[in-house]
Amino acid sequence: MTKQILLGQTLGFCGNPLVEDWQDAVVFDSAGAVLIDGDRIVQTGPAAMLRAAHPDANVTDYGDALISAGFVDAHMHYPQTAMIASWGKQLIDWLNTYTFPEEARFADPAYAADIAGRTLDLALDHGTTTLTSFCTIHPASVDAFFGAAGARNMAVVAGKTCMDRNAPENLRDTPQSAYDDSKALLEKWHGKGRANYAITPRFSPTSTPDQLTALGALWAEHPDCLMQTHLSEQLPEIDWVRGLFPDARDYLDTYEAFGLLGEKGLYGHAIHLEPREIDRLRDVGAAVVHCPTSNTFIGSGLFDLMGLAKAGLSIGLATDTGGGSSFSMLRTMAAAYEIGQLRGTALHPAQLMWLATEGSAKALHMQGQIGHLGAGAMADITVIDLASTPAISQRSARASDIWDALFPTIMMGDDRAIRDVYVAGKRRA
Ligand code: GUN
Ligand code: ZN
Fold it and tell me: Contact at 8 Å (CB) between 161 and 204?
């Protein structure tokens, strides 16, 4: 039998609660059901109706737990899993002190395979069913990640990180090898199973104009691929970029001038944007990715979520492991809430959940396929226990509605709140 029904409180979305009234964007049922056939969601609706219509389906009853689309992490670095929470540095020092030495270890394919599997399992433990990851400069690090994701049938986005300057010698490629290796990996992996290749210049300080040009040409040859990088994360970084690219109008121009600004571009952080950059990102339909735990951990600044949403930008949410300090998209939503408070906006739980599912999926141009609890989507599903610890349950017990019941888990929950995870319709053992 391939048909199954999950019963619980169900939460999905039919609109974008950042730009419309959240109540119009939410599809919530306190006695809901999700009908799955094979690897896809066929229907969502009232439990009584779906049970009566499909008496042959296998039923799993989650009681008061909340059934959501699996979380979609729109920007992270799987090679940084083992060095998460390293103390005391801001971006450039942090890269040189902790990140580059760790990434050099990925010259060993066995180490890459170990960390890739570890990262994907940690993601699933935390209810995240899709990761969007940077790899290292080593092609084998890309094979390791896509191989491990394929073994788990997870939809992922990843690419070889390209750097040909301002990095240790053992972590540098060249314009030609970055092009050749990225092209070979793209042809090997893009569209294979649930794998999606993203062309990946780390950020403009670590790529020469020649390398950016080569990767822009590769993207023009494969416009169906995503392109991921970093943009305007920290003020000293922006000063550095200004010195390296004296002719550029702004940071975004260091990508735009080389063919690396486009609709399928994913720009991580995007905290300190100029008006021209915001206009260009909106005009081309590119996405920015909010990485709130990273922004506070590395001391980068306060992302203007509501301002950019109102300006019409597509926005995803991400852990940015290991600049981010958590594997949990619940903790990531909490940090987004806290940054929102510091910018004068209290994000509603519906807005936070939308960002962690639909918003990230939209940023990846995979809306309707992942991050969606509705007909036609892949059955990547997370079941959330709303009383997972004594601290949370004593608060959610007095909740007045689903949002009041969910918010304590967003603010205080972790992997203990993840009751079950389904990947392509298969319950995780
Ligand atoms: N900018 C360039 N590389 C990185 C990285 O690995 N992490 C973060 N947070 N920012 C970056
Ligand atoms: Zn990053």
Answer: no
Residue pair 263/285 in contact (Cβ under 8 Å)? The answer is yes
Q: Which ligand is closest in space to the CA of residue 233?
A: 1
Q: Quickly count: other Cβ atoms within 10 Å of residue 391's Cβ.
A: 11
Other residues' Cβ atoms within 10 Å of the Cβ of residue 53:
13
Report the pLDDT value the prediction gives residue 2, as an integer from 0 to 100. 86
Per-10-residue mean pLDDT, the chain, length 429 = 92 98 98 98 98 98 98 99 98 98 98 98 98 98 98 98 98 98 98 98 98 98 98 98 98 98 98 98 98 98 98 98 98 98 98 98 98 98 98 97 98 98 96
Q: Ligand 1: does its nearest atom lie under 6 Å from the Cβ of 202?
A: yes
Ligand closest to Cα of 83 equals 1
pLDDT of 1 reads 55
Q: What's the pTM value of the predicted model, to 2 decimals?
A: 0.99
Query: How much is the pLDDT for 52?
Result: 98
Cα 241 to Cα 76, 208, 244: the distances in Å are: 22, 11, 5
DSSP output for 267-334 = EEE--S--HHHHHHHHHHT-EEEE-HHHHHHTT-----HHHHHHTT-EEEE---BTTBS-S-HHHHHH
Ligand 1 binding pocket includes 293 (Cβ within 6 Å):
no
203 C-alpha to center of ligand 1: Å? 8
Cα–ligand 1 centroid distance for 115 (angstroms): 18
Domains (range + CATH), the chain: 3-70+372-427 (2.30.40.10), 71-327 (3.20.20.140)
**Cα 91 vs. chain centroid, distance in angstroms?**
20
Task: For residue 230, report the distance from its CA to the centre of ligand 1, in Å.
Answer: 7
Strand 265-269 versus strand 226-231 pairing type: parallel
Ligand nearest to the CA of 207: 1
CA of 278 to the centre of ligand 2 (A): 20
Nearest in space to 268 (alpha carbons), one of 259, 284, 255: 255
